[in-house]
Amino acid sequence: MGFFDFGTIFFLVAAVVIFFQLRNVLGRRTGSERPPFDPYTASRTREDAAQKPENVVSLPRKRAPGEPAIDAYAAIDAFAKPDTDLNWGLRTIKDNDPAFDPKTFVDGAKMAYEMIVMAYADGDRKTLKNLLSREVYDGFVAAIGDREAKSEKIQSSFVGIDKADIVSAEMKGGEAHITLRIVSELISATRDKAGAVIDGDPETVAEVKDVWTFARDTRSRDPNWKLVATEEED
Fold first, then answer.
1. In the 8-state DSSP scheme, what is residue 145?
2. What are the DSSP calls for 190-214, one per residue?
3. Pairing of strands 226-232, 197-200
4. Helix (H) or strand (E) holding 147
5. Which residues are CB-neighbours of 90 under 8 A, at least 6 positions away?
6. pLDDT value at position 68?
7. Residues contacting residue 155 through CB under 8 Å, at least 6 positions apart
8. Contact, 11 vs 19, CB < 8 A?
9. CB neighbours of 200 closer than 8 A, spacing ≥ 6?
10. Of 66, 92, 103, 210, which residue is the least packed, with the fewest Cβ within 10 Å?
């Protein structure tokens, strides 16, 4: 009987010791345990994770069956009538420069036109150099130099642009060339050394018609276009 009592006590003590050891090892919380799996919230958790990705690189989304393809030429077709030389020319430029947009180009060309006209009148070579090709720049600078040699000055006020229409577009090798017909209004007069008006009228708004061609190397990272040819329309 004493042996039995001693054995029972021994096993009870051993059980208690083992219990506390297991509790210390398995029952301790470190703060990094996984929460119990809940099948009713698991789907929502996955959706939330999909909505708030972290450090995920997005890949191009595959077009779903029946979903219409994005028309890369939509802006061009809205700008120039389809199946015309102008439309095809603009499409060719778009193929070589995916970021090209005809309306954005025209807006930029109008700004460049005003800057070039006023820079020429003011003899601002620095501005002209950034906007003109080498050949056109040399021609403008020669005219400015000739004017300065005679002590002549141009008095000019830019009124605005009435029309700016693309008349042709093409690729020449890797260069995109776009020609515009620009109709503007300008008050301009050239004065001699004594201040007398020798050309133009300082008080009359004159209509000016120009045909200008801009070009850009589509292989270059430089997004700027430069004036490569000028012509006055009668």
1. H
2. EE-TTS-EEEE-TT--EEEEEEEEE
3. unpaired
4. helix 134-149
5. 76, 79, 80, 100, 102, 166, 169
6. 45
7. 121, 188, 189, 190, 191, 202
8. no
9. 188, 189, 190, 206
10. 66
